[in-house]
């Protein structure tokens, strides 16, 4: 074998056998665990790409700025309060955790916006994002398992009457208050998951594990995992709602999903069915929901999100019958933010290296 070829083989073997860092193992595990998707093309193919020199950081991401500075010493990270973002964005290459029209107007060189949350509707609606073809990445799928547990907790709270008995406990009353037929089992019941994406798939997985029948809708097509018995398109939503015992909204808020849970929709639901919303409050017509609850068109509602939000103390939704309201906490857990930090670090590494990015938002679709 020629000497050059021999040395090339030795180098290749050494590279393949080189130890993988603990950080890289963590990143790989998170990518595999959450089925994170990579962009089809490397970010270096995008017009205007260059290694970032200055990144403006806001929101929760400010808490990880020390680690980012340590891991990426060649990048200047600037923490900014909401009132400082536009000023600090003037010479920035990217924004982490923040996005508004003022910052983009000031930041002519911004090429990338990264979020440590899944919802990006307020960002992609800024005209400059689409007009300048700015790359947007987020935390798709990361919160799915946690939010799915919140859905199942609400589901079981209703079927076991916890929404009625916890107030009884507060009053120190040993009294049966569940009406006949209220206490139920979930086995054999049908759950409709609206928006079979990362969160919706995790909800479906858990519902199936509890021997529920799972049906769903998604905008991207009819494909779905084996544990979902039927996947319909958005225009099938009213028909599928009539079959469901639980309707769970996990769809992103887009112009197409805004207000889809309206009076006409609630009229299609069974009087014994429950509506659970862990996505965005704007997908539901709140007045129509209150009316449906008071008129007993539906059995109850579990809401982690509302419109408006925060929900004013005088809002009639607080006093509507059979409602469980949590203040947008479905993604909270004892797991901390290790996954968000790892994805942020990995995406920044990929951006600097010009590689394929993770969790790229389809700006046209809004998610």
TrEMBL record:
The keyword Glycoprotein does not apply. Residues 152-330 form the D-isomer specific 2-hydroxyacid dehydrogenase NAD-binding domain. It comes from the Bacteria. One of its GO terms (molecular function) is NAD binding. Residues 1-22 form the signal peptide. Residues 71-361 form the D-isomer specific 2-hydroxyacid dehydrogenase catalytic domain. Keywords: NAD, Oxidoreductase, Signal. Pfam families: 2-Hacid_dh, 2-Hacid_dh_C. Gene3D superfamilies: NAD(P)-binding Rossmann-like Domain. Belongs to the D-isomer specific 2-hydroxyacid dehydrogenase family. This is Phosphoglycerate dehydrogenase-like enzyme. It comes from Povalibacter uvarum. The lineage of its organism: Bacteria, Pseudomonadati, Pseudomonadota, Gammaproteobacteria, Steroidobacterales.
